[in-house]
Fold:
Amino acid sequence: MSEHRYTEIHLPLRQLPGWGAVEAITHSAGWQVVDTNADRGDANYKKAVTWGAAPELWVTYVEDLITQVSVVIVFGADDDAVGTLADRIAALLTPYSRQEVLTKPGEDTPKPEMARHLVRLALSASQAFDVEIFERIQLAAGHSDPEIRNAAAWATVYLSWGECESLLRQMAESDPDERVRAGSRMLLESLKDG
Structure:
């Protein structure tokens, strides 16, 4: 049995939240919902809806309900079809570019925007390990402010990389703030659950 390889393109949205604009596009296109997380355990912190755009071509909307940061993920078996649809959606939504997502916020950036930045980094990442994104989250995990370190830990819930588990384990064991250690332990436990 052969394994399917899907191309995926992540479009991190500027609008907070992006649901209204994405829903309008999907409704106008007549796409049908094929999956949602509404009845799953993660529905308390994220919204995830997938539409079938064509055979072997899907669009997923993921929103972090805490920060309201969202991403549209276009994926499918045909590279050209994925790229064409992603370009069409990007023309309507003007998402952040990869360079914009990777740009480090200034030291005077308010904490809520810093948290949004970290979640945006995570939501912009594909399944394959991305060293640039991971290094930025790892750097935030060592920030002097425990709220920023906690936001870095939270961002890892959207990443399935083994490196994130190692980072959380390190934070759970040695972060100077008990709240960050406790939050990191909770996130590690959630990895075991599923």
Observations:
- DSSP finds eight helices and five strands in the chain.
- Helices lie at 19-29, 79-93, 98-102, 111-124, 131-141, 146-155, 162-174, 178-193.
- The CA atoms of residues 9 and 158 lie 15 Å apart.
- The longest strand covers residues 46-54.
